[in-house]
C-alpha cells in the first residue's frame, strides 16, 4: 500500500469513528444537540479536524441519519427478507423492529425524535429523514400486500390502515418504554400486533405463521 492510500485509509477510519460517536450523541441529545465542538471534545480532536471530514454541521447531521438508516436496514429489513413472503416476513419485520426499539430504550430512535425536531422545519435534513421513514413504511406496505396476495391476510385488508396501526404500536411502545418506563410495554406491543393479525388474518391460511425464536425478539424492559 503506497503512502497516499495509507493516508486515505486512516482518514476513512477516522471519519467512521467520528460518525459512530456522532450517532450516539444524536440518539441521546437529538440531531440539534449534535455540534462540531462537542464531537471534537469527545474525539479529542480539534474543531477544524472534525470539520475537515464533513464540511458543515448539516452535512454531519445528514451523514448521521444515513448511518442510522443503514443500521436499521441491516438489523430489521434485510434479515426479514430471508423469511417467506407473506405473514412470516411481515411478522419478522415487526418483531425485529420491536427488538431494535428495545435496544434503543436507553438512547432513542432517530426516526421518532427526528420527526419531533423537524416536523415544521423545512430543509434538506427534514427531506432526507422524511424519505427514510417513508421508505420503511413503503416496505411494510409491500410486505402487507404480499401477505394479502398469499392469502395470509383478508383480501379486503387495507394495507395503509394496517401499516398505520403497526406504526402506532411502535410509537406507543417508544413512549411507554422510554418516557414512562412502564413494565411490560414490549409484551403489549407484541400482543397488539397479534391482535391486528388476528383481525386482518384470512380464515384460510396456507401455512401457519411461526413466531421468531425468543432469542431474536428481546422483549425485555
CATH architecture of the domain at 64-216: Orthogonal Bundle
In CATH, what is the homologous superfamily of the domain at 64-216?
Tetracycline Repressor, domain 2
Rounded mean pLDDT is 88
Question: Helix count, per DSSP?
Answer: 9
**Large-scale geometry:** elongated
Structural class: mainly alpha
Instruction: Report low-confidence residues grouped into runs of 5 or more.
Output: 204-221
Question: Percentage of helical residues?
Answer: over 70%
Tell me what you see in this structure:
With 221 residues, this protein is an all-alpha fold. It has a domain of 153 residues: Tetracycline Repressor, domain 2 (Orthogonal Bundle), CATH 1.10.357.10. α1 packs across α4 and α5 packs antiparallel against α9. The C terminus is likely disordered. GO terms for molecular function: DNA binding. Keywords: DNA-binding, Transcription, Transcription regulation. This is Bacterial regulatory protein, tetR family.
Summarize the structure.
The chain has 221 residues and is mainly α.
Helix/strand layout:
Blueprint: H1 3-29, H2 36-43, H3 47-54, H4 57-80, H5 87-104, H6 110-118, H7 124-149, H8 159-179, H9 185-200
Task: List its traits.
single chain; 71% helix; Tetracycline Repressor, domain 2; disordered C terminus
Amino acid at each position: 500500500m503506497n503512502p497516499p492510500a495509507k493516508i486515505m485509509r486512516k482518514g476513512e477510519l477516522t471519519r467512521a469513528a467520528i460518525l459512530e460517536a456522532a450517532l450516539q450523541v444524536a440518539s441521546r441529545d437529538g440531531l440539534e444537540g449534535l455540534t462540531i465542538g462537542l464531537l471534537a471534545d469527545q474525539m479529542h480532536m480539534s474543531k477544524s479536524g472534525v470539520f475537515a471530514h464533513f464540511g458543515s454541521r448539516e452535512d454531519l447531521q445528514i451523514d448521521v441519519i444515513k448511518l442510522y438508516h443503514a443500521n436499521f436496514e441491516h438489523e430489521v429489513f434485510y434479515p426479514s427478507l430471508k423469511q417467506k413472503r407473506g405473514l412470516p416476513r411481515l411478522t419478522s419485520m415487526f418483531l425485529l423492529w420491536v427488538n431494535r426499539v428495545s435496544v434503543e430504550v436507553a438512547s432513542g430512535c432517530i426516526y421518532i425524535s427526528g420527526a419531533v425536531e423537524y416536523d415544521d422545519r423545512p430543509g434538506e435534513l427534514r427531506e432526507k429523514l422524511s424519505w427514510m421513514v417513508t421508505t420503511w413504511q413503503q416496505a411494510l406496505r409491500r410486505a402487507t400486500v404480499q401477505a394479502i396476495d398469499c392469502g395470509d391476510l383478508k383480501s379486503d385488508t387495507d394495507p395503509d390502515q394496517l401499516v398505520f396501526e403497526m406504526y402506532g404500536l411502535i410509537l406507543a411502545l417508544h413512549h411507554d418504554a422510554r418516557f414512562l418506563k412502564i413494565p411490560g410495554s414490549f409484551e403489549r406491543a407484541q400482543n397488539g400486533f397479534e391482535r391486528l393479525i388476528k383481525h386482518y388474518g384470512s380464515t384460510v391460511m396456507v401455512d401457519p405463521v411461526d413466531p421468531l425464536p425468543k432469542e431474536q425478539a428481546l422483549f425485555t424492559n
